[in-house]
Write a structure and sequence with these properties.
This protein is α+β, with helices and mostly antiparallel strands and 227 residues long. It has two domains: 137 residues, Jelly Rolls, CATH 2.60.120; 81 residues, Arc Repressor Mutant, subunit A. The protein is built from nine helices and twelve strands. Strands 1-8-3-6 form a four-stranded antiparallel sheet. A hairpin with a 4-residue loop joins strand 11 and strand 12. This is Crp/Fnr family transcriptional regulator. One of its GO terms (cellular component) is cytosol.
């Protein structure tokens, strides 16, 4: 991968120097996983930072015998950065929702790079603050109707990871259980709302390709209360 393509794909590296990008490209390790494969086990947190080159993954927490999806990440995002600085035991893992390609950088080398490139360090702090704000916003929505919560999830996925297409913004057809978890609603509510949005023509579900087209982002954004 060329340095320009690398920095364009991963917003974290948009402000990094060309020398930093070249160094990172020389030390990254590539991984490929099929759908439903665990890509990061509970006891592997803190060993490396992972970057999603293509595909979709979910971060889930184990609660007794059950699991809850905490986040859904797509192309251009990363995970594992917090565990580098936090050595406490983890009860979460990461699972591929679709076939996925990841790049990893060992914890030691990533920390070395942060110290060497102050712009990269600053950019990482910015993105971590952005994630914190998104988490706080989700908490503020806890008393909102289920449709508003789900619309916020769809809009966020579209804005962060969606690809433009002739049918609208394309995202992965995420299972209703996972959509429900990250939206803080029930699976039945998620199924009913998705069916209603589909009947309105605001989204289009292609089960063959396993994608959802956000056909009317304007209406979805309005439903989410972001305008």
């Amino acid at each position: 991968m060329q340095t320009a393509a690398f920095s364009e794909l991963f917003p974290l590296f948009s402000a990094a120097s060309p020398e930093t990008i070249e160094w990172l490209l020389s030390i990254t390790v590539e991984h490929e996983y099929p759908a439903e494969r665990v890509v990061l086990m509970e006891d592997a947190w803190g060993n490396a930072v992972y970057f999603v080159e293509s595909g979709w993954v979910k971060v889930r927490r184990h609660v007794g015998d059950d699991v809850v999806t905490l986040a859904i990440l797509g192309r251009g995002d990363f995970f594992g950065e917090m565990a580098i600085l936090d050595e406490s035991p983890r009860s979460t893992d990461v699972v591929a929702l679709s076939s996925v390609r990841l790049l990893s950088i060992s914890a030691q080398r990533f920390i070395q790079t942060l110290f060497k490139d102050s712009q990269l360090h600053h950019r990482m702090l910015q993105l971590m603050v952005k994630r914190l704000r998104q988490t706080n916003y989700r908490f503020q929505l806890r008393h909102q109707p289920p449709a508003i919560k789900l619309a916020n999830t769809l809009v966020s996925l579209g804005e962060n990871y969606g690809l433009p297409s002739e049918h609208g913004t394309e995202i992965f057809n995420i299972p209703h259980r996972d959509l429900a978890d990250v939206s803080d609603i029930t699976p039945d509510e998620a199924l009913k709302i998705m069916d209603k949005l589909h009947s309105k023509g605001w989204i289009k579900i292609d089960t063959h390709r396993q994608v959802v087209y956000l056909v009317n982002m304007r209406q979805l954004t309005h439903l989410a209360g972001k305008v």
